[in-house]
Amino acid sequence: MPIWAQAGLWALLGASSLILGACFAYLGNPPKRLTAGIMAFGCGVLISAVAYDLIMEGFDQGGLWPIIGGALPGSAAYTTANWLVTRRGGNHRKRSGDQQADTGGGGMAIAIGSLLDGIPESIVLGVGLLGGGGISMAMLAAIFLSNLPEGLSSAVGMRKAGRSRTYVFGLWTGIAVMSGLSAALGAALLGAASPWILASVNAIAAGALLTMITDTMIPEAVEGEHNGTGALVVIGLLVAFTLFQA
């Protein structure tokens, strides 16, 4: 199977937990503190994966300058795109409270914002395959585990905002498919790229992901979990680090 096809399928698997999280939101009525706690754990998992599976591996491939030259523009690009989405009503897309109803709609902004969050995660899976070492199970696990609370929290918020099941599950299915296509396209375009370029792409994704965690995931976790957020982030980080070492 071509590498680009493998990348697309692995990314689709990683994004499928968004749908699984939405299922949990509709099968039960999870307490806000539970939702926020899972979100905090997911933050720790993703931070560990970014630090060890993207930044450190990128440094080993290309040195320091691709990391600096990629992470800062990646963060700036995400910040700008997120600001545009926020202006259109997508700033509370990961919130499980009543905030999504307060935006006065923003359905398309929520969809675009969710896709914006998922694309960097997907691309790094394809880039990892291009390195010749196979799929990074640590990164895949991190994406899957971090997408689960995102899907859960956002779906709870969408339900409270009055959105239908068709809308919610259609949205997450579309995001999962687009994530797979993004990974496949990234792998196809970067097939002959040098290690320096691959390191830069990893760094761009790392900068975007760290900014996304800070801007959209941590606020939901802190609001619902309060004093326990930090401990759960640490636990998530250690779990992911253990996977990385294994």
Question: Would you kindly provide a written description of the structure presented here, covering whatever features stand out?
Answer:
It is built from nine helices and no strands. The chain is an all-alpha fold. Helix 5 (about 105-130) packs parallel to helix 7 (about 165-190). The radius of gyration is 17 Å and the shape is globular.
Quick structural summary:
The chain is mostly helical and 246 residues long. The chain has 9 helices and no strands.
Spans with pLDDT under 50 lasting ≥5 residues?
102-106
Oligomer: single chain
What is the H-and-E element order? HHHHHHHHH
Strand content: under 5%
Q: What characteristic shape results from the CA principal axes?
A: globular
Radius of gyration: 17 Å
Class of secondary structure makeup: mainly alpha
* Average of pLDDT: 80
The number of distinct β-strands equals 0
Helical content class: over 70%
Characterize the main sheet.
Answer: none
Distance between the termini: 26 Å
Number of helices: 9
Fold blueprint:
Layout lengths: L2 H25 L4 H31 L1 H24 L11 H4 L4 H24 L6 H24 L4 H25 L5 H31 L3 H17 L1
Helix pairs in contact: 1-5, 1-6, 1-7, 2-3, 2-6, 2-8, 2-9, 3-5, 3-8, 5-7, 5-8, 6-9
Characteristic terms for this protein:
globular; mainly alpha; single chain; 246 residues; 9 helices
